[in-house]
Amino acid sequence: MKLEKKMLIGILICFIIAVPAWLLGKMIPIIGGPVFGILFGMILAFIKRPEKLESGIKYTSKVILQYAIILLGFEMNLFNVIRVGGQSLLVMIFTLTSSFVTAYLVGRAMKIDGKTTTLIGVGTSICGGSAIAATAPVIQAKDEDVAQAISTIFLFNIIAVFIFPPLGHMLGLTDTGFGMWAGTAINDTSSVVAAGASWSSAAGNNTALAFATIVKLTRTLMIVPITLVLAIYTTRKIRRENSNESAEGSTYSITKIFPWFVLGFVLTAILNTFLPIPDTVSSALVQIGKFMIVMAMTAIGLNTNLKKLLTNGLKPICLGLCCWFVVAVVSLLVQHFIGMI
Predict the structure, then answer these.
(1) Number of H helices, E strands in the chain
(2) Burial class (CB in 10 A: 0-12, 13-18, 19+), 280
């Protein structure tokens, strides 16, 4: 989708709405700017808007979202990933697998839309809103699917911040053990930081907070293989569906939905690791990326039917609960068997 002049007013509308959402997210990080953005968008969707805004809103929800993911790569330091990866990789493999298996089985049992199921699965197993944002264009999810998944993930982010620290103390976890648990079982980065900070405050050191944050950022890299696998799966599915409809359908290419922006994410992570980019610059680029995600979530909210979302909301919440519970338990079990706790 190429940027045209007629799109600018729609993009500007998303920008204006995103500003207060971003500021509120800074004031209340436990909720975060993307959630405020999607809520503001859904509320304003009740107001009839001019047709000329639609192309810019769609561009924001699709293309600007992809550019935002690329900028998030400046948050990654691959040396830290390698250092922590040896300890966390096994836990991540098991939590990822358990989350996707649970999402698939429960989603089918409850007859939940496949795209919503996938988004909740990646949101739970990888990194909440960022993973949902990266996966949505790959599987060609509707804005309502994204809104449903974001809302579900947000609910369990909030719960995790309050219950993980006391549960960790009840289970007798070490600082490192809690950091690993929070980093692999809490969905969103802001919630991981909040839970880690709460634990570290009680412990009198920042070990759990630092370790949880690095594990969480390492977990974010799983966006790359997961989106690539989903791109291949989606391409094959579309080919099967279209093969009997037209000759053109049978030649559907993966390049049409290949997540090129994920390669951009990897590139920016490499640049941030090996080039002497000042911290202020990389931090500013990450913040711009996160603001662009708020803009994209605002656009998605503007294209979401809130009444339909609330009507269909219970099943996705149950699915999210099942995935979240399984990931939390599996993370603890794997840590126990490898001797971390």
Answers:
(1) 17, 0
(2) exposed
Which amino acid is it at 176? T
pLDDT tens, position by position, 110-168 = 999 899 999 999 999 887 778 898 898 888 888 888 888 988 888 888 888 889 999 99
Say how far apart CA 68 and CA 235 lie, in whole Å.
Answer: 24
Compute CA distances 192 → 7, 155, 180, 235, whole Å.
36, 14, 10, 34
Q: What's the rounded Cα separation, in Å, for the pair 102 and 319?
A: 8
Distance between CA atoms of residues 275 and 175, nearest Å = 32
Quote the tokens at residue 180.
Answer: 């690993």
Give the CA-trace dihedral at 307, 308, 310, 315, to 10 degrees. 170
Residues 151/309, Cβ–Cβ less than 8 Å: yes
3-state secondary structure of 258: coil
pTM of the model: 0.80
Total Cβ atoms within 10 A of residue 68: 25
The pair of three-digit structure tokens given for residue 82, joined into one six-digit string: 């390698």
d(CA 143, CA 131): 15
